[in-house]
Amino acid sequence: MIYGAMKFSIGGPLRLAFRPWVEGIENVPAEGPAILASNHLSFSDSFFLPAVLDRKVTFIAKAEYFTSPGVKGKLTAAFFKGVGQLPVDRSGARGAGEAAIKSGIEVLERGELFGIYPEGTRSPDGRLYRGKPGGLARVALATGAPVIPVAMIDTEKVQPPGKVLPKMIRPGIRIGKPLDFSRYQGMEGDRYILRSITDEVMYEIMKLSGQEYVDIYATAAKRQIAEAAKAAEAQKKAEA
């Protein structure tokens, strides 16, 4: 009930204001479990994708969105619950991964859609980064659910990182054909299989999005960018 109300109050205005275009929506099954594996360009990705689908999509969100104190904290928690996001404590990397996997399996066992960003974090520069093995692949193998590659287009231009007010730019969503990994069933413990599945999904996302692919993790790229900015600032001060 809450999700339906939120979808109506948020999804409708989003579609009306930004008019997102969609290709391949027929690849999302009308019923039954499926994993939507998407690139991640903007905070708004988790709102635009559910807005164009008739079915509920559950994403994972950091627990802080659900536990902040005060009136603002309660409103934020209610909002994220209303749009179908689940809290995961990310204070410990391994614990966070296991919690996300468990949550994803539970969503799919209910016959619902589970949304996941294989890159693990937003792209720092609009390029597509290496997918993290484990989460996506393990959930797919544990449930047998098909993996549907999704490409968000230009959402980073709608709401660039650090910007509060969005720009009125029309984003796009391309949805690929479902990928079946049942041939690897029972091989969740093989890291090479997990890597292979993840790379296959990332390749399909790359074809859909047209992004340049970078074979490092986005988290490493963010560190490199931060270190370069720090070094440039130090150089600037030294020359002053």
From TrEMBL:
Database matches in SUPFAM superfamilies: Glycerol-3-phosphate (1)-acyltransferase
Listed Pfam families: Acyltransferase (PF01553)
Residues in domain Phospholipid/glycerol acyltransferase? 34-155
Name under which the protein is recorded: Lysophospholipid acyltransferase family protein
Q: Which UniProt keywords apply?
A: Acyltransferase, Transferase
Under the heading SMART domains, the entry gives:
PlsC
Q: Which organism is it from?
A: Streptomyces lunalinharesii
GO molecular function annotation: acyltransferase activity
